[in-house]
């Protein structure tokens, strides 16, 4: 149950970091969606280690194979299985850690729950599991393109407490990918890079905030009461490794404001329709999209693997010292950007299909096309 | 689909604010749990309007009736349905608002999605739907008492930017309920009360942050990958009306720290077992509880209903001015506390039952008793 | 988990036979569906006891109250809760049975599973729980009327081994309701009635077969692989009290045929489109509807409550004799007809909404309207 | 959504008949279950084509690879992915059929639903998809061995109307596999073989009935109301290719009996506990197991692919004649036996884990061990 995400459009992921493979089976895929391996590959290439000097040097081509559900370039309506073999699996660096619990890792809690664990590189708890998420996200974006086009862009907004200045209304993936930090503010990108290099030089790590915007959503998406759009998006982001906080629109800052300042006044939109003068709501009101850009921010803690000796306990509960070796990122943020985008795509695609299924029967309200 | 919460222990809520009734059907309830209406009533009394001078004056006794699933004082294992009639339903105050979209309310988005809405008091989008959540939460707590006792305490931690000082390790519901603000820091409570009164006097509203702690959880609770404990807790809180942000443990502040400062060193616990020297992780590592107190914070925006004229549009999209009347809270925080606790209880109960179902087969790892 | 049915259109039922009430919450209801209590009441009146001399004399008006989800005569898109109070609850007849397990009832197994039971009239295991199913079925039919009109007719086809002759292509509910046996073959109806009266006179009971047809379905409904239309319909019927077998199309008889005789040859339909020359498939091929009438048959065992002394054991496992008193049906078949129709409606409605949600994106294949 | 089965223990299958691979991801697997590829392989070998002269000559080694979830010979608690490559994929025989709808196949309905299909060997509708079911079933049996040992044996009970005589209380898989017909009655097996050979010689096919028994279940398994044991088992079997009917216990024959003859009298069991004198209930009462052998029968229609010319239509709806070539079974029954057993194992495993999760809290009722 635990590795499945979504209600109607579902992603079932699998795979341990140093096992034979990682991957995903996506079910609830409408037929007729143009899809090919190249699209997944492009998404995985933004996620994979070794893509720049700022991230883990593990060498994984992360070559994806589509095993089912696609025929003659379009989806069949059957489950789409996608597989990535683990190639550079090198568990030797983990052997000395086998009997120790690395601080702020999942070693201790996994053992507490399951009574055992694949100690090689974190096993299922490794961020390598996000390969399946990103592959599924690529398919979700393909479905959205066909049913309800939306532009999803994530970026590194804060790093180690230092904030970038980014216009959420215009930022593009091209601008984000222009620098290996995935910060589209060029000045901030340089500062962020310096911060990451400094942390790595110290055997240390840094955290930060990824922001993400979804532009082009129609009004009315989401499912009150429990599956509010921000609730499902929030869960999606909080399920990512190292994510410890999420806010929608004004978020924690908005909690300091008075209602008279926070409310987003409605106004007639220039070209017809309705707009809001401000967007403190982050594009979501009452759990439903209102047609304005959907804005979220996700806080990522600093990577737990540091190259300094740390106090811990061993499997018997006795005091010990751990000093990890291995291949790790000094900062997870640049690689977290495509993960965040993938999770947003999964949620929006699921909600779009649910909204199609439950569309009002009389042509009023939100009508998402069966037929484009 | 939209009003159901949980996987194994599920709550299906229903009801509009000014319709005949609100309520919930809870399914997946183990047999043999002592339960009676008085327990639900006590929980509802903490949520209901009219309980103090700081909250909405709507007069609802919120008398609950248990319709099924309980026999001779214990649960039968069948669904537990709980019903609360709406008594002080007075839609007349809403008549002038019928054709207008109140800013930052769900009026516009509900119409956009469903093509219609029950305009009387927000209908299904009213915070009145949380009656069902709180009733279900009372049952969840009863189940937890029997299977995995845990103490859940929420409080108003920040109001309008002003922070209380509260010891999460010791705070109790008694201390929280000692003041109508539900802030257990007496000095802060007085400041908060003054802030709420000032906002109300200005026809305005304030937001803030509710903190919540769950003490006594065993290590190993949660379901990687997608149903991490903080992901499910985060979704639960973000699904509450007016909640716009959630953080777990160090949250957004932790994202500014370096890994060497943020990591929670493990140490042998004085009485045996394992503890951590700090708790930046907020009791959750890799999505699983680690035995330390689970800590979350939820940001609530200021209540959208203010008693000042605001720009908006009408149903035809033309510019208009809205000036709500009615019975509203100047600050949702005090009544949000039992809602937050209820949502935490629902998540923990569901995860406890799931962990029972999926417990390792060889006696290692987390073993939650079928038999106490 | 146990009392919920459906994936997108879901029915959560509740209630014990002699508790305060029975009912259902239906979620996943599209907005804009005309619906009113009278429609539910008409369905419940066909199910309720006391409607004829052939069924249980328990006096229940089964008056339904719609508690939520309907406003100004149409559905809002929010959960529809429907409640029926138990009025003629008379547990006194059950007191002597409290410590005994009635043969072929759920008394023993309920105790084995839950460690206790509401012994008053079978509690949750009573056929009284089908009130919720029938109410939900009435709503399902209303949704189908709006999105994908289909005619569902069930009838008593076999009673105590004696078979009626009914034309599934033309049979109507009016014809079925013309006789209290709910057999639309007038000659057979008289024989069936005599058989039921004879069984009752002997303190005994009889079983039989209910047939059901759904006419007007488009081709392509159903969800391979596991949620084939006949699999979901089969589960729906097998979940009814006393149902012990289900067959689709030729069913068990078809298993005796050779492929050359069993295959349904396709042919151009007179008015365009495609038809089949025979319908051994019962309107379903590969788990998907093919546009021909969907035909199922459900076997119901004889009612377990007979008014003769029977060997059994008591709660301590010692041999005992039980001789039930109370108000029971000598034959469940006439009242099972609306239950069967309701279950078929629930399955078809769920599949129709799922097919809307997952409709091909390019206008090919099955396109069920968001807009009529 | 369509290719997932189960609530807590779930199987997500994927793969087309002539695509790269078929397989399954099983989630909700408790940790600590001994499991290895050899066990799956043994199950697949009983399902695969080419195993005897009576079945399809397609040459598939069906070599399984476990991709995740198993480490050092036991399950980790994470998803178990299992993959089988399609090796002898030869679509050339299907090219002439590309534009035709084979009678009583899923060609027409698949096209009606999805607007396209993988025409190579039936694509997703091929019985080749059952590879994933059988692999998952092997894992389900391993979990049952560890938590709730039960013996599941299926056999060919009726073929082309001719019935075998088999003692459900003693029949074993060894006896079943002793003859390639998988009928454990040696005399009937010879008759069945002759019937199959005769049908094949005529270019025709035959159907029949598979019976299955599950021995050793404790009393109390199942989930009233909708997820009754026979409802979930019935759905499981009806979801198999070519299955058109299911009955539990006395089934359709029981519907002819009077209650006085059909009721299963309880009696003290010789070694303590409770037994029933007869087993018309097929081990299930009120949807819950009663401790007696669970008995089901599943009707399979004759294979639709016959080697005779048949009337049909082409993709444009015009009359045509189809005369399939290719590699097909003249009778699906022998290979259906392991599929039936696998589906029963999936259902029982899921219900066992659900019963663990929802076990009564006070030690009464059904207590399935977390710890053996």
Structure write-up:
The structure is a homotetramer of 372-residue chains. With 372 residues, chain A is α+β, with helices and mostly antiparallel strands. Chain A has one domain: Chorismate synthase, AroC fold (4-Layer Sandwich), CATH 3.60.150. Chain A is globular, with a radius of gyration of 21 Å. Chain A has helices at 37-47, 107-114, 130-147, 173-177, 186-201, 229-238, 251-254, 259-262, 333-357; strands at residues 4-5, 10-15, 21-27, 64-66, 70-71, 74-75, 80-85, 151-159, 162-163, 208-215, 243-248, 266-268, 274-276, 284-285, 288-289, 294-300, 310-313, 319-322. In chain A, helix 1 crosses helix 3, helix 1 (37-47) packs across helix 9 (333-357) and helix 6 (229-238) packs antiparallel against helix 9 (333-357). In chain A, the strands form 6 sheets. In chain A, strands 1-2-3-7-4 form a 5-stranded antiparallel β-sheet, covered by helices on one side. In chain A, strand 5 and strand 6 form a beta hairpin. The mean pLDDT of chain A is 94. Chain A starts with a strand and ends in a 15-residue tail after the last helix. The first copy, chain A, has 9 helices and 18 strands. Chains in contact: A-B, A-C, A-D, B-C, B-D, C-D. Chains C and D meet through strand 1, helix 2, helix 6, strand 11 and helix 7 of C and strand 1, helix 2, helix 6, strand 11 and helix 7 of D.
């Amino acid at each position: 149950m635990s590795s499945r995400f979504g209600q109607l459009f579902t992603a079932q992921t699998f795979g341990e970091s140093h096992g034979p493979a990682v991957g995903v089976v996506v079910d609830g895929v409408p037929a007729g969606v143009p899809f090919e391996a190249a699209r997944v590959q492009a998404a995985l290439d933004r996620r994979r280690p070794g893509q720049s000097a700022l991230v883990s040097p593990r060498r994984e081509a992360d070559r994806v194979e589509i095993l089912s559900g696609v025929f003659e370039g379009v989806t069949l309506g059957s489950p789409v299985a996608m597989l990535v073999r683990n190639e550079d699996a090198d568990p030797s660096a983990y052997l000395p850690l086998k009997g120790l619990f690395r601080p702020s890792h999942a070693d201790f809690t996994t053992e507490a729950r399951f009574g055992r664990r694949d100690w090689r590189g974190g096993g299922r708890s490794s961020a390598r599991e996000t390969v399946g998420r990103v592959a599924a996200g690529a398919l979700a974006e393909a479905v959205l393109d066909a049913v309800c086009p939306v532009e999803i862009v994530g970026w590194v907004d804060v790093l180690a407490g230092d904030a970038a200045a980014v216009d959420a209304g215009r930022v593009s993936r091209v601008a984000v990918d222009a620098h290996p930090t995935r910060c589209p503010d060029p000045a901030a990108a340089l500062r962020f890079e310096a911060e990451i290099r400094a942390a790595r030089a110290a055997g240390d790590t840094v955290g930060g905030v990824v922001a993400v915007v979804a532009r082009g959503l129609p009004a009315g998406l989401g499912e009150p009461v429990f599956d509010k759009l921000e609730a499902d998006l929030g869960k999606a982001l909080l399920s990512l490794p190292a994510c410890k906080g999420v806010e929608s629109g004004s978020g924690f800052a908005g909690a300091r404001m008075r209602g008279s300042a926070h409310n987003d006044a409605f106004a007639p939109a220039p070209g017809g329709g309705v707009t809001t003068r401000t967007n403190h709501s982050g594009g979501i009101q009452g759990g439903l999209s209102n047609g304005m850009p959907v804005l979220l921010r996700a806080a990522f803690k600093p990577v737990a693997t540091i190259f300094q000796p740390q106090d811990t306990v061993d499997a018997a509960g006795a005091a010990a010292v751990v000093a990890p070796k291995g291949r790790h990122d000094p900062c997870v943020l640049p690689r977290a950007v495509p993960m965040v985008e993938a999770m947003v795509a999964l949620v929006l695609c699921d909600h779009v299909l649910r909204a199609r299924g439950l569309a009002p029967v009389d042509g009023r309200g939100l009508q998402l096309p069966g037929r484009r």
